[in-house]
Amino acid sequence: MKHLILTLLAGGSLFAASSEINQYMKTLHNEVQQKDPSFKGFDATRGKTIYFSEHIGKRGKMVSCASCHTKDRTAQGENIFTGKVIEPLSPFANPKRFTKVKKVKKWLRRNFKDVYKREGTAKEKGDVLKYMMQK
Ligand code: HEC
Fold this sequence. Notes:
The chain has helices at 19-35, 44-52, 65-69, 101-116, 122-132, and strands at residues 7-8, 14-15, 55-56, 62-63, 77-78, 85-86. Helix content is 43%, strand content 9%. With 135 residues, the chain is mostly helical. The chain has one domain: Orthogonal Bundle (Cytochrome Bc1 Complex, Chain D, domain 2). It is globular, with a radius of gyration of 15 Å. Mean pLDDT is 91; it is low at 1-12. The two termini are 25 Å apart. It contains five helices and six strands; from the N terminus they run ββααββαββαα. The chain binds heme C.
């Protein structure tokens, strides 16, 4: 059985992130704190801004994370470039989400490039993960 750790997230919603995801969040946290000793922790409000703000991204299109994953993360999305269906991003609608660090890292790298044309910083990744993992 997978070892689960309950994580209390802002907004009072409880999501049982897998232990490898919790470990990854800790690693990101330490990375940010090394550069900024006054860092207090990841913030879902900053994460929400990262998720919704639009940028000139891939192929010169105005893109945000919501372009493909929609405003309602519990709904099915669609890849705006390929037209393929994307299963809901919210772990409350799709229990497979945020269980595998390898998958999370791979798609954060790709998707930040799609939207921001660069990789996310440790702080941005932690903030947006915190936002996406809450209701
Ligand atoms: C061009 C469309 C597109 C955009 C824009 C996009 N994504 Fe994705 N995202 C995908 C696809 C496709 C997948 C992989 C298929 C799947 O997991 O359903 C994915 C998967 C993910 C995953 C994997 C989650 C898991 O555990 O399964 C995360 C995290 C993610 N995206 C975050 C983001 C963030 C943050 C942004 C904005 C910076 C973003 N995405 C923007 C298409 C997109």
